[in-house]
Amino acid sequence: MCLGIPGQIIEISDAENLCGIVNVAGVKREINLHCVVDAEHPVATCLGVWVLIHVGFAMSRIDEAEAVRTLQLLTELGEMQQEFEAMQRSEK
Amino acid sequence: MSVDAKPLPQEGVRRRHGQLRDTRITLSHGGGGKAMRDLIDDVFVGGFDNALLASLDDQARIPLAELAAGGDRLAFTTDSYVVDPLFFPGADIGALAVNGTVNDLAVGGARPLFLSCSVILEEGLEVATLRRVVRSMKAAAAVAGVAVVTGDTKVVPRGSADKLFINTAGIGVIRAGLELDPGAVRAGDVILVNGLLGDHGAAVLNARGDLALESDIASDCQALSGLIDTLLEACPTVRCLRDATRGGVATVLNEFALACGLCLHIDEHALPIREEVKGLCEILGLDPLYLANEGKLVAVVPADGAETALAAMRSHPAGREAVRIGTVHATPQATVVMGTLFGGERIVDMLVGEQLPRIC
Amino acid sequence: MKYVDEFRDPDKARALLQAIEGLVADIEICRRRPLQIMEVCGGHTHSIFRYGLEALLPEAIEFVHGPGCPVCVLPMGRVDDSLVLAEHPGVIFTTFGDAMRVPGSKKSLLQAKAEGADVRMVYSPLDALGIAKANPGKEVVFFALGFETTMPSTAMTVLQAERERVANFSVFCNHITIIPTIKAILDSPELTLDGFLGPGHVSMVIGTAPYRFICRHYRKPLVVAGFEPLDILQSIWMLLRQLVEGRCEVENQYRRVVADAGNDPALRAVQEVFELREFFEWRGLGSIDHSGVRIRDAYAAFDAERRFSVPNLEIADPNSCQCGEVLKGMIKPRQCKVFGRACTPETPLGALMVSSEGACAAYYNYAGVQLGKVGGQRSEPARGRARDRS
Predict the structure, then answer these.
(1) Domain boundaries, position C200
(2) In angstroms, what separates the C-alpha of B55 from chain A's closest C-alpha?
(3) Is there a contact between C116 and C145 (Cβ–Cβ < 8 Å)?
């Protein structure tokens, strides 16, 4: 359900109607930015922002810090696993 | 009248130089009269510019001895080309009509020699469009080393066809003793492709415009006959070859798996796919393995010939990005399995129908 | 691709898988039977098969493929209604590609197109609106499908059509809501689910609060999950940790995309244009209260159901189908009587064979070596399809 993919807003094509161009791995398309624009985030701040795209609409701003945190956690988990294994090996 | 009795006209010499002044095709261009003669003379004979065609007989006559010198069997194939739009980044319907048929001959181990060109034109087609297509066919034929030696033209009323359809049949001669057969594939064999996958399908989808996507993806349309020459020269033990057109690499692999009853096991890591094509596929929910190619082949070679075959392919311009994508296993039988990027495995089956863009 | 490739990194998966195996050993239930985790969303089903995740996970973990494929669960009667609209003279019928092959009682949209109906595939409802503007002499109907993820785009397109006074555009609304459906599944007495992977993209619209009742009233943990393979594995790991630690909460693995509060402009547009239906019919699950939306009276001009007369017939699912049981995790697709025999992707009988996201279609197309895993025991590698076809 609900194919959504990340893309970066590279141009505001129609500020009045909240439309912008996104780039997904070199493929470009005009999308609607309504869902990622509010009083705190005016349309002008959208440039360069990564969004999650679904059926021609930007549905969510992707939170870089959260993405980094998720990956960081996985890296740490990997290190913990390695230490754990090393411990087990030395016990044997 | 035999070929011997009538000396062939010199290259470039024409019986009569009809000129087409109309800007659009009308029904009279298919009526058999002077208008049709002008169209054929000016656009096709002029465009293809070869002696066999210029004689304007109802058939091209080819000396058997000339054919027999090149091998021991005749390869004969036909294909029809319908594409919307007619022109798209990287190629057009004309180049497609030549290379498609050339490749169908070449993957059977034949050296392609002669093509026919039969066109069905929709009333109202711009003559300039047709000229552009014929120019492109001529250029593609020159690269592939084939000649368009016979043809036919029909015009149908507006709405009865979409602008322009082309059928090309081709003949070529198969190298003596060469037997390419997917039934001969054995466990342990290696699976190769000659370059990036899915470019043609992605380029056409993009060029159609109704998805409003923009990218620099261009069709990979090219003749494979030169590459196959080089490959067979270096590695005569190649088991089989097939060009991965409609249905993509996945379909060819499934055809091979059915023919040999073995498991064609590919590695997702190894699949050469352009970033833009991946992006387009992610957006539209498509699988690049099923996207059409027009200049890509899948080769299965014995393991001990794999490195030689790969090096030979890479030495040819049509195979610069050739890579090994998998190996043949004994089980599961008659199945294509892909080792995923993620270390899992999944079946790659034939498609039910055309791949459609999806949102779910 | 940024935000995609990093989450497909097999090296990171290894650590997660080891951690998952460690947790499984500590879960009491796993000593008696496999854990049953429902991925609600068809997108997760697709990823699980695409990356072969079942084979990587311990046998003690079983996926129950949920109802979250809006194309699959569309009842035959609604497909027939769409065909009536598509074959209406003067109508250009626009749809996502997903719906093209879904069978009605007599044919699909693809077949109707072959018979002369003007059916066009679009990527976005805005493209359908564009077609309406470009063809003022025609009536353009958009076949609106999907859960809460897709609802805002339809709502915003309707609002734009009103703003621009596009008079020849309307929507055949089949949007459905996931929460009442999860509740219906949870109310089923035969159920043995141990936890849920929550639908990531629905959640980016509705937020995480609407799932709380699942923990409170049904005592099942839920982790809102992203769609890349690492997202899914991490979500399972989070779910198992809840089980080991005796917690039962709504957690959010997909923080980079899903805000706990959801998306306000999207929710406002949905609220403005749509209202809940008393009930909506689901293929495989039957009628579920408040599980669909319709267009409010204020936007009646854009409602194809009011603009054209649609027969609105109810057509029962074929008797032989066991989709309902598969959806509730009572049986695996391959245990269904008609799977791979009467019901195949070429000739789907049941909801779950209809779209590539349906559990049965995924089993049929992708299921491979790994799917020797049925009923908790690993058997000889076999294709997920019935071999009697060949």
Answers:
(1) 1-72+178-264+317-384
(2) 49
(3) no
